[in-house]
Write a structure and sequence with these properties.
elongated, two-stranded antiparallel ribbon, alpha+beta
């Protein structure tokens, strides 16, 4: 069975878990001021930046809102800011991502590769917005942060058990630590 936002939400209640961020990914285009480029889009939640230890150069991360809300906002990578806004402030600007108009709320500090994607070329949007953009209700991954390094083995077991229960007794996921 596919991973869903509800699966991710259920993991938030586990005792060994500090943070959970659903993640859906796809490619799209970003347009602003006559400039257009291909981008990788990550759909997630407010917890995504702290789980991945991403830092902001400007602005804020995604709003801490109901995961189903999907506010029309985006956090962009440093290279996208440089290419699309060349020296002007990006935060507060409206851009078009695919067929959506989004307001930029934050810019990531330059960091390069991570999770098999160049974060400097990433656009992060709320998970439900990304799912609507890509016409999909499934997730690529669910990122989970344990309460501590020592809590990781226990949290891994809790996550596997919880998803197995939700997936009719099938252990159909892989948990990577």
């Amino acid at each position: 069975r596919d991973l869903t936002v509800d699966d991710a939400g259920s993991l938030r209640r586990l005792p060994g878990v500090r943070r959970v961020a659903p993640l859906t990914v796809g490619t799209s285009e970003i347009a602003h001021g006559g400039k257009l480029r291909e981008i990788m889009v990550a759909g997630s939640t407010a917890e995504f930046l702290p789980i991945r230890n991403f830092e902001l150069a400007q602005g804020s991360g995604l709003p801490d809102e109901d995961w189903g809300r999907g506010s029309p906002v985006a956090v962009i990578g440093a290279k996208i800011r440089d290419e699309m806004f060349a020296g002007q402030a990006a935060v507060g600007q409206l851009v078009r991502v695919g067929d959506r108009r989004l307001r930029i709320v934050g810019v990531l500090k330059s960091s390069g590769q991570g999770l098999g994607m160049n974060t400097d070329e990433l656009v992060i949007v709320p998970v439900s917005l990304a799912q609507a953009m890509f016409n999909s209700n499934t997730l690529f991954r669910i990122l989970v942060e344990a309460n501590s390094r020592d809590a990781i083995p226990g949290a891994k077991i809790q996550v596997l058990d919880a998803l197995k229960q939700r997936h009719r007794g099938e252990e159909d996921v892989t948990v990577i630590t």
